[in-house]
Amino acid sequence: MDDTAERAQAARETCPFLTAKQAAFHLGLAYSTLKRLRQAGRGPKCRLHGRTWRYHIDDIEAWSAARARGGDRG
What we know:
InterPro entries: DNA-bd_dom_put_sf, HTH_17. With 74 residues, this protein is α+β, with helices and mostly antiparallel strands.
């Protein structure tokens, strides 16, 4: 596991808020893609903590689940 994955895992275990880089990694997106989605108002809910955008893990999961398409869920 690289450092970003380890930090994301530690954040999930200790704090529900991920940085934008951690959130992008968790979603399998490039950081720049997540940033564009945020700027367009189309990404997961996020909060500005100081000068750092933070994403709550529940908001990331809800945003991702809302975009699920196809497949058999039964």
